[in-house]
Amino acid sequence: MEKTFIMVKPDGVQRGLVGEVIKRFEAKGFKMRGLKLIQVSEELAGQHYAEHKERPFFPGLIAYITSAPVVAMCFEGKNVVAEARKMLGATNPADAAPGTIRGDFGQDIGRNIIHGSDSVESAETELAVYFDKAEILEYDYLPSKWLFE
């Protein structure tokens, strides 16, 4: 089973969409392994967005992600990285299909509700940035026997 990192961004938290996001991931059958509400520091934001450091929009990303609390989550499941990306929808909400999180709730590319890892490797990196190993819990997830052969 794969793990992925999902973050409800400041606009999603401020709009009260955290429960809706969790509901969708749980309804899909993904196992929550970690969850926390945090205020992202500039240092943490710099780690998360390190790949964009030289881009002109980098200061805006940092200002935005540090502007209000976010909800950091770890979900586990079969093909969870790819499936989560489908659930999130296109980065630009204007291009996101109805039924996706961004398609249903997003208004602007700069305020697109949610972040999700784009690969298994980036999930591992992002989870290590936001969670200590002890914060990713292992437990018996009873629905698994009804979800997978």
Would you give an account of this structure?
With 149 residues, this protein is α+β, with helices and mostly antiparallel strands. Helices cover 40% and strands 17% of the residues. Strands 2-3-1-4 form a four-stranded antiparallel beta sheet. The longest helix has 11 residues, at 18-28.
Features:
four-stranded antiparallel beta sheet; alpha+beta
> Spatial order of the strands in the main sheet?
2-3-1-4
Record field, number of beta strands: 4
Structural class: alpha+beta
Provide the residue-averaged pLDDT. 95
How many helices? The count is 8
Provide the β-strand percentage band.
15-25%
Helical residue percent band: 40-55%
Largest sheet: 4 strands, antiparallel
Unreliably modeled segments:
none
Radius of gyration: 15 Å
The sequence of SSEs as H and E is EHHEHHEHHEHH
The general outline is globular
- Report the span from N to C terminus: 13 Å
Topology, element by element:
Blueprint: E1 2-8, H1 10-14, H2 18-28, E2 31-38, H3 42-48, H4 58-65, E3 70-77, H5 80-88, H6 101-105, E4 114-116, H7 120-130, H8 144-147
State the gist of this model.
This protein has 149 residues and is α+β, with helices and mostly antiparallel strands.
